[in-house]
Design goal:
By secondary structure, this protein is of the alpha/beta class. 37% of the residues lie in helices and 16% in strands.
Length: 331
């Protein structure tokens, strides 16, 4: 080998080593690896389970909702999460002469000074049942079950997949993560209001809340985010979306107070909140809101974006702060 050839060989080997190191660094990134486990097939499988006919549309209260709660609790346990300190995995409450339920789980934080604070991820797991439930579901032909794949199987899938992905991190977030699936949303946010009155952790320890409701349809490259103008979470959501342009997902600020969903009880208590919402569609509250119509690739990217946002909230020392509407700090 000539001296020139040897120099070329050494240079090539050095370049290859640098590229290998970079590739190993990317693969070794714990956040990247965990976020990568949130996939379109996984999202679709979750929604299919939630919106299965056996759940009978998950009315509040109903045996189908009971099955939904058991599925959520089983998923939390399988991920290695702890039950809500003051509630257990299932929080029972009375509704319309029956027993309703919320599902609650915690991933304890790693920082001794911050683990007593919580980042909350919430979605409602109930829907409007069947044509005989009296909640507005009307049969279409022989189909009398309103399965609610988008409303809100998509939100349930987001919370369950986030719980699993965060639990899979080699280095846990500094703050604790609180995962909440509520019922009674369709009747007026009853489950989230009950939780606020009977929280699993001290309400003042919840430093941020991210709500998911109907995030599986419509525009492929954007997601509506309500509340970006009310706290520093709006600027953070924009920052994170720009840092993860590979997701192809743009948060679009929507003026408050659009959306009567489960972020509202937490916002009313002063908790900084944002609400992910992909918009309405003709299948809303109809039997045709089925899993086949879910854009699982879009939702997986929305949930990965939420994963990175939640991780930033959990690991940054400053807590999110509320912003007065119309102030220069609002987006």
């Amino acid at each position: 080998m000539t001296g020139r050839a040897a120099r070329v060989w050494v240079k090539a080997v050095s370049c290859a080593a640098v590229l290998t190191h970079c590739a190993e660094h990317q693969v070794a990134d714990p956040a990247l690896a965990s976020a990568g486990t949130i996939t379109a097939p996984g999202i679709r499988a979750r929604i299919a389970a939630v919106a299965d006919d056996s759940m009978r549309g998950r009315a509040t209260p109903s045996p189908g909702l009971d099955r939904m709660g058991a599925y959520a609790a089983q998923t939390f346990k399988a991920a290695g999460l702890a039950p809500g300190p003051l509630t257990g995995f299932i929080q029972l409450w009375t509704a319309f002469g029956g027993t309703a339920r919320n599902a609650v789980a915690v991933l304890d934080g790693s920082d001794a000074d911050l683990r007593g604070e919580y980042v909350l991820f919430v979605a409602h797991m109930d829907h409007i049942g069947t044509a005989s439930s009296g909640l507005g579901c009307s049969a279409v032909g022989t189909d009398s079950i309103c399965n609610g794949a988008d409303d809100n199987g998509s939100g349930v899938a987001a919370v369950l997949e986030l719980a699993r992905a965060y639990a899979g991190l080699r280095a846990r977030p500094r703050r604790s993560m609180l995962f909440l699936l509520v019922s009674g949303e369709e009747e007026g946010l009853l489950g989230s209001r009950y939780f606020v009155a009977h929280p699993a952790v001290p309400l003042g320890a919840i430093i941020a809340a991210i709500n998911f409701d109907m995030i599986g349809r419509n525009a492929r490259d954007s997601i509506l985010v309500v509340g970006m103008d009310r706290s520093s979470l709006g600027a953070l959501a924009t920052e994170v979306s720009l840092a993860h342009a590979e997701l192809g997902m743009r948060p679009v600020s929507v003026p408050w107070p659009l959306g009567g969903s489960d972020h509202l009880p937490f916002d009313s208590c002063g908790v900084p909140t944002i609400f992910f919402f992909a918009g309405l569609h003709p299948d809303y509250h109809r039997p045709s809101d089925s899993v086949e119509k879910i854009d699982a690739d879009k939702e997986a990217r929305v949930v990965r974006l939420a994963f990175y946002i939640g991780l930033e909230i959990a690991n940054r020392v400053p807590r999110p702060v509320r912003i007065a509407p119309g102030s220069p700090a609002a987006p």
